[in-house]
Amino acid sequence: MDSDSADPISEAHTLVTELYSPANQRNPARINEIQTRLQYLQRGNHAWQIADSLLRGPSAHHRFMGALTFTVKVNVSTHDIDEATTLQVLEHLIHHFVTIVKEGEQAMVVRKLASSLATLFRHAACPCERVLRQVAASLAHGGFVSEQQAQTVDFATGVLPSLDTQQATALLFFSVTLAEATLRLEDEPQELVGPAFRRAVTNAWDGLLLVQYILPQISGQSGAALDKQIHQTLGSEVMNSWKGWLSVASNRSLPNGDEVHGLAVSCGHNIIETLRVPVLSELAASTLTHVFESRRSAFDETSIWVLSRALADSIVTAHIISLTEGHEGSESVTYVDLLVAYLSHLQLKVFSDPMKPENAKILNLAHDIFKTPGYAVIDDPATPRVLEFWNEIAESVLDELEANDPRWQMIKTQLAQVVLGLFNKLLYPTPDGLAEWSDEERSEFNSFRHEACDYLLSAYPILGVELVSVFQESATSHLQSGDWRGFEAAMFCIAQLSEAVDENGHADQCLDAIFGSRAFTRLCAGGETGIPLKARQTLVDTFGKYESYFERHNSLLPGVLNILFESLNFESCAQAASRSFLTLSKSCSRVLTSELSIFLDQLDLFRTKPTATSSTMPKVLEGIANIVQRLPSDEEKVQTLERILGFFVQEATQARQEAANSAYDIARSHGHLILSCIASIGKGLRLDAEEVINVDAATPEQSPYPPSFWNSGSGSRAQQFIMESMRLLIVDFPVDSNMIDSACDILKAGYTESSGLFVFPPSMTVDFIKSFPLGISGTDVIMGTASAFLASHASHSIHVRDEAVALITHVARLFASMLENPDLYDPETANAGIDFFARLIPKYYTVLFSLTEPLPSLIAQSHYQSTPAYSVPLDFALHALTRPEALTLRSASAFWVALVDLRGNSPEETAALDQVLQSFIPRLSETLVNQIAGRCARSDLASLSDVIRRLIFKKMALARPSIDAALDALDLHTVDDTANRVPLLSQQDKSRLVQSLVVARGARQQSMEIIRAFWLKCRGMSYDYAQ
User: Which InterPro entries match (predicted)?
Assistant: First the structure.
């Protein structure tokens, strides 16, 4: 279609007809074509005439598009409309507005034309001020009335009473739109929209007068004669208008701001009264709730008093009571929201002494809400809302009241009443009922239960041990009667309160009443086989939360642990049971050594169950290892450990056979389980924190692998079991990242000790790391293990020199292959490898720089066949500074910082280090300068800046000439308006960069700002970094 049309007005009519034609609704291409053409016409030279004509069109769709065209044209003609044009367009719009309202136009058209009026009014060239009054006068007159004429009639007593229902509704549409447009102006730069905003806020008074006039009309007897739909429409618009102008009026800096705000508050009184009008009650409740949450200043003491009467005794009260009795749907929660908003507004003030009768009734309503039938959140959305208020009260009492305050006991009684009302809401559904819930519903209900327990923790400082006593009595009685749902809910609450009472022992008497009861003894002995899974799950979770209690009452442990092992057989309980077993085994390990044989028998049964997974089995084994560690002698320990570890050798052999049969996924899963279990044993055998041997304090002469009970004595067989399992599951095995993680954990388990079951020959770590190919998933973990290994031997590095050389050579060979074959480059390997060298340098630099021979086993054409091995990681770290990967560049920067910061232990070592640096500084300087000259990403500047400032501050003599040369070589240009090449940097700019960095004397922030400014200038952005 051509851009120009002989008759654009007719074309627009035709396009609108086609746009809404049923024949085109399933033709998105045609719809898009029509919309594109219409948008062109709406922005064109004939847009005003098109809009005018469409507003007289034959259908509501045409007239809607006409109003929209006015809006579009005003928005795209921001700089083309003068004052005279705006007045002319305003007259047209008001005329059309009056006409369509008189003709009973559809609401969507009236609203859109109201939006066009508001858009024009906010235009900077529009001189009108009291536009709401002008539109109202025009509606009342039946035709356009100028602003000056509209001022001659009193708005409240002359204009508004002249409007019929249809006109009042339309005026409210415009009032809401104008208020919203005014609020949007508040968010825009005042230097741009200041005049428009000042004109807009002058309408706040008129908007609120309109609200004040309409509300009594629809609330009183005259409103009763209105059609319900009209009644609700008027109510909705008048309340939206109040909310909009209330937000505008909250800006007290407005002219007559206090008076306007006072009128807004007065309108609020009228809104509150409409709570008593059945057809408007729910709408008023929703409006007031919203305003409580966003504009609390809208309510004065009179508002609160009027609202308290409505909440205590009106149809609002009836709705809430009906809801608590299960007679109303969830839509009536609107009234609960208002009640909660009211209470949250008053907070502790609601508990006045003496309490006001209205507030006493309202608080009783709040308590009765807990009686609402059904499950909270699922069937009963009201309870969580009320609970939120009570939690706020519980949290604020300690901060705001003294214990001798007369209100303290009153509030304590109220909080206790909440506990009693809340308990039934915590009952978990039966399995049949739960099966009907969706995953989202289950999640929401569980979240509610934890929110309820947050309330209990908040209330505990006020209610004290009496709170635990309530749940103890409930748990005991329900356990005796076999009411497992009640028992589960009570134990759930007790478990959550452990945070407040476990360590201090304040509730020990209550816990004794549960765990010392005959019913619990029968449970421990397996006498209660019918305990449902949910009750079992909660019970075993509770055990783990009371580790200090069971440490004080260790005679209960055998029975408790029996339940835990029994619960490991149930899928839904295994996680909680293994977690609690580990917790109790740690805290009570000294008293459990006599139970080890029983635990091992239980372990033999458990490991054959489908619930023995990589998330449960390792926890059980770590717990057993904690107990084993408490045995008095290594000879006693080794018997238990050989029994366990021998089994894993068998399992590893089986996993290897699975891999040989191409069942790779099964083999990997099996292998991961085995390795994670062995790693957990190592974790459990670690010495207590106060007994950990400081490896760094060992003497330099100490061997990294001295003869010990575990490598050359009776314990060597157990260590061989671990090493054999590792060999079976690593060498020529289809490992995955999970297996690598666990294998590394096994190795690292011995790095903090000088001797022990998990202290392996140093060569084992080296062989492990060298066994993985370039780029394997988990490289970062492997390299981290290599770093941890070297760090653990840093105090006697001379004894692991061969291993250090092997690791350095291995990683350097990976670097050489990536440098010479870019297709092999792997970001994870690069980052992990550079990080390895950065960590290695401070303690092993003498080993690194002693490797002056070329790397062995390189291909014949390799560039590195004739260069020292130590230069490969430095070359790679230089290359990494130019990479786009942020992590790699950051690691490379850290490497160079570590190298520049390095100081030798003697003048000879320092001179040797400077000689190495001197050979690399020219290339390093060139790389750094090129990167900060606009090539790197802005986010990389901080890392690069760290290297540059170190070079200049610490190696000035070596670095200054190279940096100057790199800057001199920069040849950056841009193109000016005449297409001539213009240099971005002058010679003065270049020299000033170095001078500024020298003056900064290594200060991080100052250097960073200087380099950032230089980077901006090199990118053609105007910025004076000389400052």
Answer: ARM-like, ARM-type_fold, Importin_beta-like_NTR, Importin_rep_3
